[in-house]
Amino acid sequence: MSEDKIIARALRILDARIRSGSVLSSPQAVRDYLRLKLQDRPHEVFLCVFVDAQNRVLEVEEMFRGTLTQTSVYPREVVKATLKHNAAALIFCHNHPSGIAEPSRSDEALTQALRQALALIDCKVLDHFVVGAGSVMSFAERGLL
Description:
Strand order of the largest sheet: 2-1-3-4-5
CATH topology: Cytidine Deaminase, domain 2
Number of helices: 4
CATH class: Alpha Beta
Shape: globular
Order of helices and strands: HHEEHEHEE
């Protein structure tokens, strides 16, 4: 079985387990799942993990897809999706196809704008991960939230 087929199969299994609420129970589990999901994408992708008040996963949704170096993220659309899923909190994640898992100034500004917009509907931002080639950076661990 090829590596791509193995990864695709692993993602299907993880997605099924996420729906049951049992997989993303630790920061390392979240990091591993997001790395597997995004590290090999040839373009930038921004996704949201919607969770309930007990931090159980409600949905993982790819919200925006961009180019090799950027993607446009619209806070209005994130708020609409949050309300649709009745989420109490979110985890953001995006990849850097360059392979470097360091946030840019615009990544930091976007995270703050999303936090402010979501605060208006009483929704918390738990973390924002940046996925690079083989590594994942956490805004929460860096004190950027």
